[in-house]
Amino acid sequence: MEEKGYLFAHFKEKRTPDGEQVYFALSRDGYQWEAANGGNPVLTSAIGDCGVRDFCIYRTRENHFVILATDLSLANHFAGKYEGSWDIVNQKGSPYLILWKSDDCVHWSEPQQVRVVDDSFGCAWAPDMIAVEGTDQYFVHWSSVKKGDEKRRMAIYGALTKDFVHYSDPFLFARKEGTQIIDSNVVYHDGWYYRFIKWNVGEGHIYMERSRKLLPVTDSGLSEENGWERMPAFDEEMEKLEAGQYEAPTCFRMADGKWCLMLDFYGTKKPEEQGYVPFVADDIATGRFVRSDAAFSFPYGFKHGTVMPVTAEEFDRIRRAYP
């Protein structure tokens, strides 16, 4: 596919329920972004929690399009059924993800709940997906906690699927002993899988690892045992940032061949929340992503989502449908 633009599916951090729906933004080069649909939602969910967050948009091998999202509305339910507690959200939130499908990125199916965890898990957070090289399957991964875990240790779990509706039993993909991790993003390039994960405790940062193999993983899920190796140059750049203020990594290759990692900077006062901050690497294999705010522009603060390359025809079609 010859890439001629980019589509960013995301949500807005607002105090009203319309913020927790699907928003689109477009860019020709990955640097300069414009709002689609007048900065209003392009898709809404009236099922489950009646709100969605933490999107992944993905192009299948057959050139179909899939959106998966967390089934959660804090605007609707945080003070009510979740009693103002993130722990209750994690333990008792939805075991479902919300799914949309499309053949053209304009005409989308009705939202559908798909269950990816059994009753031993809490909420399924922040899905991400990637094709498993050499197979006809896709790997969907997300953050969850096991119910009853007094230490509330979130970890990354995953499942295999061919149609994004039916899933294998969930299995552990990554964890850190004695702590918790969330928000995984995986990309594949030149024989390597690269994964970005948020270490979600105290002064935690985003960290980056790579492996020749995506699967299988060991029962422990520890990087030392399943071939994932840390990227020291990435750690050096993250140490320059204020700790504990970034989440929701999403990585993509831009039109000029460089790689962009977007990190959601949530450590600002609302409602002036900045949203995503860009980091650029000349070569993803180095792991050196340098913060590069001045080279980018955004119409407003984008919240947790993903970027998908599109063709010139797709770009124009989406823009016409959502001017």
Characterize the structure shown.
There is one protein chain. The chain has 323 residues and is mainly beta. Helices cover 10% and strands 38% of the residues. It contains 5 helices and 20 strands. The protein has helices at residues 74-77, 86-92, 223-226, 232-238, 312-321; strands at 5-11, 23-27, 34-35, 52-59, 65-71, 96-102, 112-115, 125-131, 138-144, 155-161, 171-174, 181-189, 192-199, 206-211, 229-230, 246-253, 259-265, 275-281, 290-291, 303-310. The strands form 5 sheets. A 4-stranded antiparallel β-sheet has the order 3-2-1-20. A 4-stranded antiparallel β-sheet has the order 4-5-6-7, with no helix packed on it. The chain has a 4-stranded antiparallel β-sheet with strand order 8-9-10-11, with no helix packed on it. It is globular.
Short description:
This protein is mainly β and 323 residues long. The chain has helices at 74-77, 86-92, 223-226, 232-238, 312-321, and strands at residues 5-11, 23-27, 34-35, 52-59, 65-71, 96-102, 112-115, 125-131, 138-144, 155-161, 171-174, 181-189, 192-199, 206-211, 229-230, 246-253, 259-265, 275-281, 290-291, 303-310. The strands form five sheets. Strands 3-2-1-20 form a four-stranded antiparallel sheet. A four-stranded antiparallel sheet has the order 4-5-6-7, with no helix packed on it. A four-stranded antiparallel sheet has the order 8-9-10-11, with no helix packed on it.
